[in-house]
Specification:
Layout: E1 2-4, E2 13-18, H1 24-33, E3 39-45, H2 48-55, E4 61-65, H3 71-79, E5 83-86, H4 93-102, E6 106-109, H5 115-118, H6 121-127, E7 130-132, H7 141-154, E8 158-170, H8 187-191, E9 198-202, E10 205-209, H9 211-214, E11 219-223, E12 227-233, E13 235-236, H10 240-243, E14 251-258, H11 262-271, H12 287-292, H13 301-307, H14 314-322, H15 338-349, E15 358-370, E16 373-384, H16 392-409, E17 417-419, H17 424-436, E18 442-447
Parallel strand pairs: 2-3, 2-5, 3-4, 5-6, 6-7, 7-17, 8-14, 9-13
Antiparallel strand pairs: 1-4, 8-15, 9-10, 11-12, 12-14, 15-16, 16-18
Helix pairs in contact: 1-16, 7-17, 11-14, 16-17
Length: 449
């Protein structure tokens, strides 16, 4: 374990952050810039350089280089800190959380609760500590903002349906490619979006979509002052019936937001096998040889579409041409599958430039009955980042975790065990502080036919 140590005061509260990646900047800045309590943040990463970049401006912080599988070093760090935040890949959270429970430290992550984390519930209760998962943007802010509205509605009305969608896109002024998209989070998740299929409730009937149908089932949602966007269904919406205690409703749906035209073009990539992460690709290929392999006579995009029997509009073709799939450049040595190749392309083509800004969109739709009449309430939020370093994505993933960590250190009482932020005692104060950072929802209600 390598330690980049500064002069830290022993009396300070100590926060330990595992991971110095994309979402860590806003979290670390929030914690280090607060003035309410003396605080230091230790940032741990396999790359000391990344950790140092995140702590360079703060004298009461430190960068730590660590191999997470160095059990003794990991345990020693956790033991010496007051609260633990994990921004590691989801499959590694349980290593950190298990040690944190052992040493009676609260743990916070932005990731979905895994089976390994759930298995720590009883031990966490016994040791009087909390593991808070799903406290980022989506999941996270979506839970908290939706539940605030649901709790208010169900006190007087009968909720009939609930729909929710979130998406990270580029801000309108930075929309300089035909996809209207640039990468501000894990690029692998972008490439494999929709692979798990989708299930949701519509008109009282369960609908289940396999991967190849996800991007063909698009809805159009409108945002105030921004206009229409596409929404495609996202994973398993049915579990939110229990999570949000929505009994006897007719519809529940969760989706992902993109600019208009994205989904139909992405669906073509899917149909052509470009998102496949199970095939095998030889790095000796050029991009052209990769895309046309085992397809005799295919020399260009038109031939590729014809090979698969796919029809494409001019706007779809424009988006596909932008990716330059038939380049004669050699493939990088690191690729193993078509999904790897596509990820390499997108990380270059969809790179957010230094002064460009991203935008987070979120909308909840509530269908309810009140005094014999039916209504639809839309609650919408848009949030624009500052630049490629200080992104909206980083802020809205990192800020909820930072706010909760600080409030716990200030004395906020939290439940023991494994939880998501579905308690009013947690989500109401977090939403209130997020409002001070410009995270505000605008609502409009209309009568349904």
């Amino acid at each position: 374990m390598a330690l980049h140590q500064k002069n830290l005061l022993g009396s300070m509260h100590k926060v330990l952050v595992f991971g110095a990646g994309r979402s860590s900047g806003a979290l670390i800045d929030y914690l280090m810039q607060q003035k309410s309590i003396p605080l230091t943040v230790s940032v741990v990463d396999q790359s000391l350089q990344l950790a140092q970049e995140k702590t360079a401006n703060y004298p009461t912080s430190q960068a730590v280089q660590l191999n997470l599988f160095d059990t003794d070093a990991r345990k020693d760090l956790i033991r010496k800190h007051d609260i633990i935040i994990s921004l590691m890949p989801p499959h590694l959270h349980h290593l950190i959380a298990k040690d944190a429970v052992e040493y009676k430290k609260h743990t916070i992550t932005a990731s979905y609760i895994s089976k390994e984390i759930e298995a720590l519930h009883d031990e966490a209760i016994s040791n009087g500590v909390m593991i808070m998962g799903e406290l980022g943007l989506d999941p996270g802010l979506d839970h908290m903002s939706a539940l605030k509205e649901i709790d208010a509605l169900r006190s007087s009305a009968k909720i009939m349906g609930f729909k929710s969608a979130t998406g990270g896109v580029v801000a309108p002024e930075s929309k300089d490619n035909p996809w209207g998209y640039k990468i501000t989070w894990n690029p692998r998740n972008v490439v494999l979006a929709g692979k798990s299929g989708a299930s949701f409730l519509e008109g009282g009937l369960v609908k289940e979509l396999p991967y190849h149908q996800v991007f063909k089932n698009v809805e159009i949602w409108n945002f105030p002052n921004l206009g229409p966007f596409e929404v495609y269904p996202n994973r398993d919406s049915l579990k939110y019936l229990d999570l949000y205690q929505l009994d006897n409703i007719q519809s529940i749906y969760r989706g992902t937001i993109r600019y208009s035209g994205f989904c139909e073009a992405w669906d073509l990539l899917l149909e052509m096998g470009v998102t496949n992460d199970e095939d095998r690709v030889e790095a000796v290929y050029s991009f052209r040889e990769w895309i046309s392999r085992n397809k005799p006579g295919v020399q260009d995009l038109k031939g590729l579409l014809e090979h698969y029997g796919l029809l494409a509009t001019q706007s779809q073709i424009k988006r596909l041409e932008y990716l330059d799939l038939f380049s004669d450049q050699p493939l990088p040595a690191t690729v193993n599958s078509s999904a790897d190749v596509l990820q390499h392309i997108l990380e270059s083509k969809w790179k957010l430039q230094p002064k460009e800004r991203d935008m987070i969109l979120m909308q909840h739709q509530f269908m309810y009955e009140l005094e014999g009449k039916q209504y639809k309430k839309e609650s919408s939020m848009s949030y624009i980042g500052q630049d490629a370093h200080d992104t909206a994505m980083s802020r809205l993933v990192g800020l909820p975790m930072g706010i909760l960590a600080l409030k716990i250190l200030q004395g906020l009482k939290v439940p023991s065990g494994v939880h998501i932020p579905n308690y009013p005692g947690i989500y109401l104060p977090l939403l209130q502080e997020l409002e001070s950072y410009g995270v505000k929802f605008d609502s409009r209600t209309s009568m349904m036919n």
